[in-house]
Amino acid sequence: MFRPLNYTKEFQYITMQKIKIIAKTIYKHLQDNASLILVCTIIGIIHLLYQNYQFGGWNHSIQIPILKSYFHTDLYPNDRMIETRSYFITFYFMFLGLIDRIFGHLELIFLIAYLITEVLFFIAVYHFAYALFKDKNVAILAVILLFTPKPIIGGDLIHWDHHNHTHAVMPYILFSLALFMKGHTRKAYGLLGFAANIHIQSVTYVVPMFALVSFVDFMQNRKTTGWRNGILTLLKDYSFFIIFGLPCLAWAFAKSGGPFNGEWIAQLYERSKHHTFPFSWDKKEFTNYLLFFTLGILSWMIAIKNSDDKKIHRNFALFTLVVLVFCGMAIVFSEYYPVKIILRIQMFRSTKFLTIFMALYSCYIIKYFWDKGTLHKILAIGTFLALLLPEYLKFMVLLILLYQFAETKKLHWGVLAFATGVLILRVFVPHESLPDKFRTEEITGFVSPLFEDKLRVILTVLLVFWLFMKSQSKRWLTYASTIIACLVIIAYVLPATYHRVVLPYEKRGAWINMQLWIKDNTPIDAMFITPPYLQSFRVFSERGAVAEWKDGTQQFFDTEYSFEWWERITDLGKEDKAFYENLSKERLLELCKKYSASYIVFPTTKKLDLPSIYENKEFRVYKCDQA
User: Fold this and answer.
1) Between 11 and 465, where is the model more confident?
2) 246: Cβ contacts below 8 Å, ≥ 6 apart
C-alpha cells in the first residue's frame, strides 16, 4: 500500500537529478561562452546603432497591426488586410503579442528582441565558422566581416534595420548549420524544425540542403550500414524536423492561398517583381553577384586542398548546388512556366545563405593568405577591405585575377576555367566599372563613428579594455573587467541606446503625431482613406485603412485578397502621389461610401471642402460628409 509513495519519491529524485544535470550543462556552456557572449553583446549594440534601428516602418506596417490584432480583437474591425493574418504563417508575432499583452510597451519589446537576435546572430556565426574550419581566428574574422551588408539577389537582407521574423530566425538557422557541420544531425534537424515556426520561408531554403547531404551520406554508406538501417536513419533524421516544425508545417499545408491565374501573376509582377521575376532586375546585380560567387568558389577550392576533412567542404558544395537549383527553378517557373508555390517562396532569396557560405570561405582565405608571403598578405588585406566595406566590392574582379595568379597550383583546372570565363563574360555584360581611383572615404566613413559618436566610443573603448584585460595572465583581472563591462552596459549603454533609438513622440514627425491624435480622438472601428504611397498608418493610429501600397506584400499569401487590394489601391492611385492629391472631393466621397470609410487623411498642400477635425504641418484629417 506504500508503493505509490515510494514510487513518487523515486520519480521526484530522478527528476531532480535530471534537472541538476541540465542546469550544470547550461552553466558549463555559459561559462565556456561567457567571453564570446560579452564580445558579441558589445558588437550587437554597435551594430544596432550602425543599422540605424527603427520601429514602425517598412514591414512593420503589416506585422505590427497583425500582432496587435491577436490579443486586442477589438482593433481593426473590417480591415481587409488584417483578415489576411490566417495566411501569415508564423507564431513569432503571436509570441511577441502575448508578451505585449502581459507587460506592455511594444517598442521596448521589439528593441530587446532585436538586440537579442543580433547577439545570437554573431554568436551563431562564430560557432558556424569554427565548426567549419576549427580555427578561432577565422571565426573571429567571420564575426567582423558579417557585420556589414553583403550582396544578395532577390531583395533579401542578412541584417535588417528593424525587427521581424525574417531577422529573428537567422541565428537559429545558423546554429542548426553549425550542429550539422559537427555531426549532430538530429539536433540540427530539430532546431531547424523549431525555426520553421518563426519563419518557414527561410527554413524552406535550408531543409533541402540538409536532406541532400543526408541522402548522399546514406548512398555512400549503404553497403556498410545496409539499406534498411540507412533508410531508417534517414527517416529518423527527417522526423526530428517534422516533429519540431509540425505546428507551422500543418498551418502552411492547410492554406493554399486562393486561385492561381494570369491576373494574379500580372498584379504580382507590377507590385513585387523585385522579389520574384528575375528578368526584370538590373543585369549588373547578377554580374556583381557572379563575381562574389566566383571569389567564394576560389576560396572554397583552396580550403578543400588544404583540409584533411574533405567531407565537410563537400557538404558545402552540395549546399551550393541546392541554392543554384533553386535559382534555376525560380527562373523557369516564374518567367516561363509560372508555378504558384515557386512564386510564393521567392527562391532567389536563398542566395542569402550562399552569400554567408562564400563570406565564411573568404574569411578562411584571408587567414590563409596572411600566413604566407608579401603578395599573399596584400591579397589578404584587399579581400578583408572588399568584404568589410561594400563600396570596395567593385575590386572583386582584380582579386579574382590575383587569386588565380597566386594560387595556380592549388586550383583545379575546371575552377580556373570557370573563373576565367566569368572575367571574360563580365566584359560583354552590364557591370559596375572599377573606380577611377582608390578612395579612403569608405574606410573613414566606417571608422569615424566609432570615435566621433559618444555612445559608440564608449562601446569601442569598453571592448578594447576588456580584451586587453583578458589577455593578461591573472584570472582576477578577467573577472574584474568582465564585471565592470557588464555594469557599464547595464547601467549606461543599454539605457542610452534605448533613448537614442526610441524617440519621444513629439520628435517623430507629422505622420506619426497625426496617428497618435487619431488613436485618442476617433472611434476604434473607424476606417480611413490614407495616402497609398505612405505606409504604417495602422501602427500608431490603431485604426483601419482602406489600402496602402505596402499591403501588397500579402498578395503572395492570399490571392483572393490580392484582387480586392488591387482594386482598392488602383482607386487610390497606387504609388502615384500626384494622382492621390488630385482626387476631387466628389471622388473621395464616392470612395468613402464604396469602402465604408469615415475619415480621409490628405496632404495640407490641397484643402478639401470637407469638415476638418485635425491639422498639422503636413496632413489634415477630414470627416466624410456622406449625407
Assistant:
1) 465
2) 193
What pTM did the predictor assign? 0.91
Q: Quick check: 395 and 434 in contact, CB under 8 A? A: yes
pLDDT tens for 341-350 read 888 888 999 9
Q: Are 317 and 203 in contact (CB under 8 A)?
A: no
H-run or E-run covering 465 = helix 454-471
Q: In one letter, which amino acid is 603?
A: P
What is d(CA 407, CA 348) in angstroms, rounded to the nearest whole number? 31
Q: For cell 551563431, name the residue.
A: 124
Tell me if 174 sits within 8 A of 131, measured CB to CB: no
C-alpha atoms less than 13 angstroms from C-alpha of 482 in its C-beta half-sphere: 16
Show the cell assigned to 172.
537559429
Q: Average of pLDDT values for 74-78?
A: 90
| Contacts for 600 with CB less than 8 Å, ≥ 6 apart | 528, 529, 588, 592, 608, 610, 621, 622, 624
Among candidate residues 301, 282, 286, 321, the one with its CA nearest the CA of residue 400: 301
Distance CA 400, CA 602 (A): 54
Distances (CA, A) of 157 to 72, 164, 175, 349, 406: 31, 12, 18, 9, 33
- Cβ–Cβ under 8 Å, residues 346 and 201: yes
- At 527 the pLDDT is 93
